[in-house]
Each structure stands twice: as structure tokens, then as C-alpha cells.
Design a protein that fits this description.
This protein has 9 helices and no strands. The chain is mainly α. The protein has one domain.
Length: about 180
């Protein structure tokens, strides 16, 4: 059991290091949800009567913030399998599969790193939301939101990594990912 945990941990850190090296990717992943929540949230703020008609009492941006948080996690997770696709293309996956490392450790390490990245993004978006005036009726609501983020992220990253590992071509992978997204 220790071997699987160590192997998972190794893949987990490898993926995080790759993510950290891609500064433009990190920046884009942070800017896009910020734009959604700040710009789109303010543009649709005039729809206040519409959201009140369904029983939501509050500002539109408060209505929209949890959705942006969850969607960001889902998109991050869906596109997280791209690293697996590149690993296959450049031969790392062949080396990993012929090593004594467990195949499940490879998938779990990738899924855990993608989920951590999604959770960090969600935390940052929550911070941005709070900074622009979004209030949660109960601050403890953040805990189930983060739980949902992690669950969705694990699920969608698992699907994405599986698709990337089994797709016959990049085009097939991207077609399936577009269907999911």
C-alpha cells in the first residue's frame, strides 16, 4: 500500500511542477473566471427582477458566484487530461507504464493534482467574489461549495485522464472533451 501512495504522490508532484512552469496557463486560468464574475456579473445585474421571481433574494452576482466557482472547477478538470495526452505523445507514458509504478497510481496522481488546482482556483474566485461584495448568507456555505468543487473535479478529471489515456488520436480526445464541455 505504501508503494501506491508514494507512486501517486510522485505523479501528483510531477503534475504540479508542470502546472507551475506554465505561467501563462496559470494566468489565463485565473483571469477567465475573474472576468466572468466581475464583467458578466455586472452586465447581467439588471436581471434582478428575473432572479427574484424564482425566489432568490440578493444581488445577481451573489446568484452567479457559486456557478462560476463550480464551472471553473469543471472546466479545469475536463481540460486536465491534456497533460496525459502530451505524456503519451512525448513518450513519458510509455516509460511510466513500463516502470514498476502502478497504473492506478498514475491516474490517481494526475486526478489529485488536477483537483488541487481546481480547489485553489475556486478559493481564489471565492476571494475575488468576497472582494467585490458578494456575501454568502452563511459563511459556512463555502465548505460545501469547496466539497462540491473537489468531488466534481475528481469525477471530471478522472473522465478526462481516462479519455486521454485511451483516445486513439488527439482529434478523438478533443472531440470527446468538447462533447463534455
Amino acid at each position: 500500500m505504501n508503494s501506491i501512495m508514494y507512486d501517486t504522490y510522485t505523479i501528483f508532484w510531477r503534475e504540479l511542477k508542470r502546472y507551475k512552469k506554465s505561467r501563462s496557463g496559470v494566468l489565463i486560468r485565473l483571469i477567465q473566471p475573474a472576468i466572468w464574475i466581475i464583467v458578466v456579473g455586472n452586465i447581467f445585474s439588471e436581471t434582478q427582477p428575473l432572479i427574484q421571481s424564482v425566489g432568490f433574494e440578493g444581488e445577481y452576482i451573489e446568484f452567479m458566484a457559486p456557478g462560476v466557482i463550480i464551472l471553473t472547477a469543471i472546466f479545469t478538470s475536463i481540460f486536465g487530461g491534456v497533460n496525459t495526452l502530451w505524456d503519451r505523445r512525448y513518450g513519458f507514458m510509455n516509460k511510466a507504464l513500463t516502470s514498476p509504478i502502478s497504473r492506478s497510481a498514475i491516474a490517481l496522481g494526475k486526478m489529485a493534482s488536477i483537483s488541487l488546482i481546481a480547489a485553489l482556483q475556486a478559493s481564489l474566485i471565492i476571494g475575488i467574489a468576497l472582494a467585490i461584495g458578494v456575501t454568502f448568507p452563511n459563511p459556512l456555505m463555502i465548505i460545501p461549495i469547496m466539497g462540491i468543487v473537489i468531488l466534481f473535479s475528481l469525477g471530471f478529471s478522472g473522465i478526462s485522464v481516462s479519455l486521454a489515456a485511451t483516445a486513439k488520436s488527439q482529434e478523438t480526445f478533443w472531440g470527446m472533451i468538447n462533447l463534455l464541455g
